[in-house]
Design brief:
The complex is a heterodimer. By secondary structure, chain A is an all-alpha fold. Helix content of chain A is about 75%, strand content about 0%. Chain A has a single domain, classed as Helix Hairpins (Orthogonal Bundle), CATH 1.10.287.3510. Chains A and B meet through helix 1, helix 2 and helix 3 of A and helix 1, helix 2, helix 3, helix 4 and helix 6 of B.
Amino acid sequence: MPGLIHYLILSAILFCLGIFGLLTRRNAVGILMSIELMFNAANINLVAFSRYLAPQQLTGQIFAIFVVTIAAAEAAVGLAIVMLLYRNFRGIEVDKINFMKW
Amino acid sequence: MNLLLFYLLAAFIVISGVLVVTLRNVFHSALFLVLAFFAVAGIYLMLNAEFLAAVQVLIYVGAVTILMLFAIMLTYQIQSNSIRQVNEQVIPAALISALFLVLTIFAVTRSFGNIDRPLHNSGAWTASLDVADLPAQSPQWNWTAVLEDGNGKNYLAAGVIYILSGPSASIDRTFQIDSDSPSGNVLSSSSDFFRGKRVFARHQTMHLKVWSDSLDYGAITEAAWKITSVSDSSATITLRLTNSNPETIGRLLMSNFVLPFEVVSVLLLVALIGAIVIARKDA
């Protein structure tokens, strides 16, 4: 049986992949996908801690469900913003969309 | 075996994750994101989170990535492989995320490196039976304790209760599930209580504490008495230990976590309306 540390390291790797994608992607949809990877890393952490540290209370799993819900809401609003950006700028490269930069 | 399965799933997750963040074609990235989400659902199954695994497949694989594929196809020329997908800060970003990874692994190894099995492996569940709640037409109650899990019912203990009238009192008893035969016997320390016939007064409460010191009953979160059959001559009540993960999560969402549940549902409604308002064309 894998120990808690296995799940934590897997989650850390997934989170850092998400950070890398978030920092390097030019495509807004790619950035949203990286954020989803980071959400999943956090969820693995929550469920693993729930399983290993408090197996009789499912608090970690409940919180993971809330995280999934919020990720779904974030994806819906984020992709709506992407559609709006595409309509106004004919492109979703985030380094071109800098009209709010001073 | 479990470790091998874990490494297989972890390899799927990590390789798909690398492809998600590095592939030039965003459409292919989204497809590998689906693969990573499936493998994460497998990790949830390994962690006894069956409901969350189903939610993962339904919401992430079924809804979120499909939404992303739609967004990619609506906004992006798929043939445009010539468009540069990464910005100029690839090397600093790789350094920063690698540094963060090393620090995180160092921290979690220092803090949690010695936990190789679930803590509090011994489970204890208390179920209270108020004798006054039993219907009065039957003077004799057969009771059984069963463990209902995915494999069916496991018989744990049984006994008979006679209900008389008498002073109010409460009885606490503990029985231990024999670790060698999980489907089987109550240990001898208190089993005479259960083999014998007990006389209960009408106002008594019977607290039964079930515990086990070596079985992995981590998933059991619910212990409740249930009246299973009633007739004039005898009746049966069942102490039901459930380790059904969706049922327990449903109970928790409707009891302890009902306020966050409602707040999240309002949040989903707001996000739904907000997404429609943002994305629609102005008249």
